[in-house]
Every structure is written in C-alpha cells, then in structure tokens.
Design goal:
306 residues, alpha/beta, FAD/NAD(P)-binding domain, 2 domains, 7-stranded mixed sheet, binds flavin-adenine dinucleotide, oxidoreductase, flavoprotein, FAD/NAD-bd_sf
C-alpha cells in the first residue's frame, strides 16, 4: 500500500486529521477535491481563536501548518471511485484542476467529504447564500441580532427554527411560501412569541450589492423588508463513495459511524459533516483529530500483532 491513510476531503475535518496523523509520522495523502461547504460565507464564526475568519483563510492556515509534517502529502485530487483492495483500498479519480487520471492505494481511508445544501429554486436564494440567506443561528445570528428577520420553511421544521432564532430578534416573520402545514399548536406557540406567519407564495429575494437581504417579494406583489432569512436546507452527501461501497447510511442520508468514527465497512472511517451530528467547523476539526487517533491506534495494533 502506498499510504497508511488516504484522507478524502481537505476541509476542517480532513486537514485536522492530517495534522494529527502527520504528528504520528504516518504516510498520509490528503485528496483535496476543491472548496468547502461554507465557501459562500464571509466568515467562520464560533471557531475558538479564529472567530470570523474567512473560510479560505482558515483552510490556508490548515495547509500551512501541515508543511513541517513531511510524511503528509496534499494533492488536488477528486476521488471518483473507492474499492476494497487487499487489506485496504484503491482510490481513483482525477486532478481537481485538470483531468489527469490519478490512482492510489491506502491501508485506511477517512471520508471527510462533507455535504451540500439544497436551496429553494427561487431567484435570490443561491445569490445571497451565506450572507443574507443563512442556515445556522449559532454561526450567523449574532451578526443580525435585533434586526427584522424571516424564517423560511414549513411545518415543525420552520416552527422550531423560528422559536430558536427568536432568541436573537423579537421581529420575526415565518415565511412558508404557500400553505405552511402548521398545526394549531405550532401557530399558538409562534403567536405567543409574537412571531407572525406569512403563507403567501414567494417570487424572489432582493438583495444589496454586498449580498445582504433587503426584501422578500411575494406573488401578490407585496415586499417584506428583512435583514436576513434563515432556513433549514435539505442536504445531500458531497460524494457517493460511502454509498457505492455499501456503507450503512442513516435515514437522513448521513454516513453511519460508531463511537470511534468507524463506518460499517472495515478500515473506512468518516468525520465532519458527512456523518450524523451537529455541523460546525470546530466540531468537524475535532472529529478529524478523533478519527486520526482511532486510525493510528488501529494501524499500530495491526503492526504489533504481525
Ligand atoms: C454558508 C455556510 C456558512 C457556515 N458558517 C459556519 C460558521 O460560521 N461556523 C461554523 O462553525 N460552521 C459554519 N458552517 C458549517 C461548516 O461549513 C461545516 O460544518 C464544515 O465545513 C464541515 O467541515 P468538513 O470538513 O466536514 O466539510 P467541508 O468543509 O465541506 O469539506 C469537505 C471537503 O471534501 C471535498 N470533497 C468532497 N467530495 C470529494 C471527493 N470525492 N474527492 C475529494 N474531495 C472531496 C470538498 O471539496 C470539500 O473541500 C457553515 C456552512 C455553510 C453552508
């Protein structure tokens, strides 16, 4: 096998795992397939010592701090297939900047491939994503605290998110974009917190040049002025590598792992957003470290038992 560990994905989870494995003198390849999930965001918030850092700068520092660890290589490498081979894996793909075919073998693989967010197919959502359209109050609500906010969605999902966001602003409108499918109890809970409900269909979001939200335009022609809109966007896995190998997925499509971040496929691990749990950059980095320790100890056990 060429490498002890192939790490697929060079976001917070992947780079953090590479750092710990480099410090263990492991031969590691980090396959860097391109931008992270939060590429569109101006700042990563809540990351101890790096609060508000640009996403690209956080990763640049991550790459820079790998340099002393010469057993770690980082390659622009979009992994397309991952198959079992001998006591490890073979990964094939191509350079992420060009089409150069690439193939490597490794004793262990860590999937740190993240997720993508599926936004409503209406003008403005994609354009304002990460700035005027936000997914996570813990990441971004402080920046828009005490301002007029919208929370978009239907049913219990929008109710829970609106009640959560009401911690940061007392001026919230739930925008359901058509029938809200809200129970009488949900309506009562929202009303109690003075959160209003608008069930008119949305036509588009209108933003400013710097991608802040200004107005929500409805099918009846009305405009609602708001500083930001929160939503729980559905997500899908950035890569199908785990599913292609037959790894167990959760009902929500995340890669199932046990408490040691082991997937259901022997020698295959997963860390960061790709597995279930809260999704934050610092938590993904912590996962990467945890997975690296578990992998190093597993490799060591195999080596000592030869
Ligand atoms: C708009 C937005 C704003 C956010 N703001 C914050 C914030 O303020 N604070 C915070 O803590 N969190 C924030 N998050 C969440 C944060 O981005 C994620 O929790 C974090 O990026 C997860 O890290 P990760 O390493 O698991 O995945 P990612 O950072 O998404 O990295 C996964 C990497 O894997 C690569 N990859 C995927 N498939 C392949 C493949 N087949 N081959 C090679 N590489 C591949 C991708 O290109 C990507 O670089 C935000 C998310 C979004 C969407």
């Amino acid at each position: 096998m060429q490498y002890d560990v192939l790490i697929i994905g060079a976001g917070s989870a992947g780079l953090s795992a590479a750092l710990t494995l480099g410090r263990c003198l492991r031969r590691v390849l980090v396959a860097d397939g391109g931008p992270p999930r939060n590429e569109a965001s101006p700042g990563v918030h809540g990351f101890l010592t790096r609060d508000g850092i640009r996403p690209a700068e956080l990763l640049r520092l991550g790459h820079e701090q790998l340099r002393p660890y010469t057993s770690v290589e980082v390659q622009c490498f979009q992994v397309d297939t991952l198959v079992l081979e001998g006591n490890g894996f073979r990964a094939t793909g191509h350079g992420s900047a060009d089409d150069t075919p690439l193939a490597v073998t490794a004793r262990r693989v860590l999937l740190a491939t993240g997720v993508s967010d599926v936004l409503p197919a209406l003008p403005g959502f994609r354009e304002l994503w990460g700035r005027g359209v936000l997914h996570c109050p813990y990441c971004h609500a402080w920046e828009v605290r005490n301002q007029p906010l919208a929370v978009y969605g239907q049913g219990s999902t929008v109710t829970g998110l609106a009640l959560l966001v009401s911690r940061w602003s007392r001026d919230i409108v739930v925008v359901t974009d058509g029938p809200g499918h809200l129970t009488a109890n949900a309506r009562r809970r929202l009303r109690r917190e003075k959160i209003s409900i608008c069930e008119e269909a949305v036509v588009r979001l209108i933003g400013s040049d710097n991608r802040d939200l200004r107005y929500i335009e409805f099918a009846n022609g009305e405009l609602l002025e708001r500083a930001a809109l929160f939503l729980h966007a559905p997500q899908h896995q950035r890569s199908s590598l785990a599913a292609d190998l037959g790894a167990r997925l959760t009902s929500k499509g995340a890669v199932w792992v046990d408490s040691g971040l082991r997937t259901s496929i022997p020698r295959l691990y997963a860390a960061g957003d790709t597995k279930p749990g809260n999704q934050q950059a610092l938590l993904a980095a912590a996962d990467g470290t945890r997975a690296a320790i578990v992998i190093n100890e597993n490799l060591s056990r195999e080596e000592y038992s030869r």
